[in-house]
Amino acid sequence: MKWLGGQYFVLDGADGQAVIPPGDYVIRIEVNPPYTPTRSNPCRFLDPATGLCHALQELDYSNNVGMVRISIPDHPARKGGGPGGGQDPRG
């Protein structure tokens, strides 16, 4: 649902980040990413194929990445699908 936190991207700089210019992009999201253990963050579940650790146990750690190509048009707040998307504040 587009109004829930974490379910959309803010592109217009309103979140304190740089404004994202129009263009073609690839969004890449990884769940349960691997990490190298440290003294303060020990290994919870070891992936024997890579020797890296994960926070959650899985049968297959090789399928944790999703990618999608997107095109951000000019004026995404008026044409986009995020909160308020499709609404032109000028009427």
**Percentage of residues in strands:** 15-25%
Shape: elongated
Radius of gyration: 18 Å
Which stretches are poorly predicted, pLDDT < 50 over at least 5 residues?
Answer: none
* Assembly annotation: single chain
Tally of strands: 4
Structure description:
By secondary structure, this protein is mainly beta. It has one helix at residues 76-79; strands at 23-30, 45-47, 52-54, 65-72. It has a domain at 23-76. The chain starts with 22 loop residues before the first strand and ends in a 12-residue tail after the last helix. Helices cover 4% and strands 24% of the residues.
How would you summarize this macromolecular structure in one to three sentences?
The protein is mainly β and 91 residues long. It has one helix at residues 76-79; strands at residues 23-30, 45-47, 52-54, 65-72.
List the main descriptive attributes of the protein structure presented here:
91 residues, two-stranded antiparallel sheet, mainly beta, 4 strands
Layout of secondary structure:
Layout: E1 23-30, E2 45-47, E3 52-54, E4 65-72, H1 76-79
Antiparallel strand pairs: 1-4, 2-3
